[in-house]
Design a protein that fits this description.
The chain is α/β, with parallel strands linked by helices. Helix content is about 25%, strand content about 20%. A hairpin with a 4-residue loop joins strand 8 and strand 9. The N terminus is likely disordered.
């Protein structure tokens, strides 16, 4: 038995299948929060003792109205860079679903996803945030920041509901965090990377060009979206579960005014919260890291209980080995949708792509998938090397895996 970072509970490794109840960043629309001590499942045997980094509150945020759902201050975890990375900055936007109704947001504000009060005051830095060269060869000595997610609209909302005592201030939190980090040396960066996982991966797409504009043209600035390519897909009942959900998020939290105008000029705001309608028009170099059979989208968007009341998809959602031929065929349609979405995006030389045919979600923060002896590969190149080659212009990287079940290097998530 082995514990790895990025997991809420201990899992058992069987081949490359990971038995787990929930993965950090892999959250249902409204999920019960696990005990804080079990979120990461840290053990010394996993990868030595991981670096634990304390939480810094953004003290000037309240004056700007940049507060969490419950009105508490937002925060981030910062580990300083050194040596060749002293003037290099990486911001990782935390993921963790969204809330689309007063009820779900009131619930959320009593969790670590809506309030400073419930946040872990120290978190491990693993994967792309690791400080060890053998775990994170290209970014280990950068200034690395994990910006905590406490709004519920991918750092993009801006309104309030006084009756429910809810502050939807994701956009202000994002801006206050950048301003604070600029004052701590980021304004002198010679290179910067905006990254994020899940809802944070969506946020890194939404804010990519905005991030670029904070720096002079001489600064190398790029963006990475991990598991953020949420598709406006038809679910197993023929409905559009995720579109309906996103519509609630956008309307409730006042997201519309913060969406790229190049999209909202010709599409409705909800469509412009979907990355598939944004990525081809982003001017800043962007790398999309995603699994072709994203576990979160399978469970919460394609085959949620509301679309599968009789539970025909339950076994398949829990373990891809139990998917029937017709279910796999449906999922191949989802993969085809994804490949069509990235077609125009991939024609731009500056962009990067790593779409592997796995049943997983978020691969940059977990050490086992980011950079380890048995990490997933496409061809002979793993994720960390692909991202590094793209960022530093060592090699172009637009890798798309062959369809399931050809990839034997996947770390497929298996749920109990």
């Amino acid at each position: 038995m082995r514990k790895l970072m990025g997991l809420w509970v201990v899992f058992v490794v069987v081949g490359f299948g990971f038995v787990s109840k929930c993965v950090d960043g892999f959250e249902y629309f409204n999920v019960t929060e696990p005990p804080l001590e079990s979120i990461y499942g840290i053990s010394a045997s996993a990868a030595g003792y991981p670096l634990m980094v304390g939480l810094t509150l953004i003290q000037g945020a309240a004056a700007k109205g940049a507060v969490c759902l419950d009105g508490t201050l937002p925060g981030y975890h910062l580990h300083r860079g050194y040596g060749s990375g002293a003037n290099s900055w990486l911001i990782q936007l935390e993921g963790g679903g969204w809330c689309n109704s007063i009820r779900s947001c009131v619930y959320r504000k009593k969790t670590r996803r809506g309030s400073y009060t419930y946040m872990e005051k120290q978190i491990p830095f693993t994967g792309i945030l690791s400080n060890k060269a053998e775990e994170n060869p290209d970014f280990f000595n950068w200034n690395r920041i994990k910006l905590r997610y406490c709004d519920g609209a991918s750092f993009a909302g801006d309104r309030e509901d006084k009756v429910a005592q809810l502050q939807f201030r994701g956009q202000r939190i994002w801006l206050a965090a950048v301003e604070d980090l600029m004052s701590k040396g980021m304004r002198n960066a010679n290179q910067a990377l905006l990254s994020g996982c899940s809802a944070g991966g969506l946020a890194s797409i939404l804010h990519c060009d905005e991030f670029r504009n904070f720096f002079p043209r001489s600064t190398r600035v790029k963006c990475l979206s991990d598991a953020g390519l949420f598709l406006d897909a038809v679910d197993v009942s023929g409905g559009r579960t995720l579109r309906n959900f996103f519509n609630g998020v956008v309307k409730l939290q006042g997201v519309q005014k913060n969406l790229p105008s190049g999209c909202t000029n010709h599409l409705d705001p909800t469509s412009c919260f979907f990355p598939e309608n944004l990525i081809a028009n982003i001017k800043t170099p962007l790398f999309i890291l995603n699994t072709a059979y994203d576990s979160w989208q399978l469970q919460a968007s394609l085959a949620p209980q509301s679309a599968d009341p009789h539970g025909y998809w339950r076994d398949c959602k829990m373990n891809n080995a139990y998917c029937s031929t017709s279910q796999i065929q449906f999922l191949q349609g989802f993969r085809n949708h994804m490949l069509n979405v990235v077609k125009r995006f991939s024609m731009t030389r500056q962009n990067g792509l790593f779409i592997n045919s796995c049943f997983a979600h978020c691969q940059s923060e977990r050490q086992d998938t980011w950079f380890a002896d048995n990490s997933p590969v496409i061809g002979n190149k793993g994720i960390a090397l692909a991202v590094g080659d793209w960022y530093f212009d060592r090699a172009g990287n637009k890798a798309i895996d062959c369809p399931y079940p050809c990839d034997k290097t996947c770390h497929n998530l298996v749920f109990k």
